[in-house]
Specification:
With 141 residues, the protein is α+β, with helices and mostly antiparallel strands. It has two helices and five strands; from the N terminus they run αβββββα. A five-stranded antiparallel sheet has the order 3-2-1-4-5, with helices on one face. Strand 1 and strand 2 form a beta hairpin.
Length: 141
């Protein structure tokens, strides 16, 4: 007969994980807002290379390196990792900063942290219920 392990996750660990997720979501949101505010010029870029890797949970993820031209020269920008399969030669919209054209992003492939935010809320709710059961219900306060 084998003994089964009934290891439980600490509610504090779930609350800490939620806080970490909210910090990451805040950082991603700040980067998105900054990009939208500073990168006001738009052009069409061309995918010059594609890299891929496999993630256990989300499957194949692709990143494209996009070359784009401005009045001051030619630059490159990488798309965030996504499930979108890019092909070399594909045309993609690139927004760049008029004061520094090397600062750019691909608005159609910008990360949207809403799913991470919802995961953070879920962890916070489960951790909060665990803390409530552990400390409030047991102590009677």
């Amino acid at each position: 007969m084998s003994a089964r392990s009934t290891r439980k996750t600490s509610p504090w660990a779930l609350v800490a994980l939620a806080v970490l997720i909210f910090v990451i979501v805040g950082w991603q949101t700040a980067v998105n807002v900054r990009n939208k505010k500073t990168c006001t010029m738009s052009t069409t870029g061309v995918v010059i290379s594609v890299s891929s890797h496999h993630e256990r949970r989300s499957g194949w993820r692709y990143t494209a390196t996009v070359s784009y031209n401005t009045e001051s020269g030619t630059y490159t920008v990488r798309t965030p990792s996504s499930g979108t399969h890019f092909t070399e030669g594909q045309h993609i919209t690139v927004n760049y900063s008029p004061s520094d054209p090397s600062k750019a992003y691909t608005p159609d492939y910008t990360s949207h942290p809403i799913m991470m935010f919802l995961a953070g809320l879920f962890c916070l709710a489960i951790g909060g219920v665990g803390l409530y059961k552990k400390y409030i219900l047991r102590t009677g306060y």
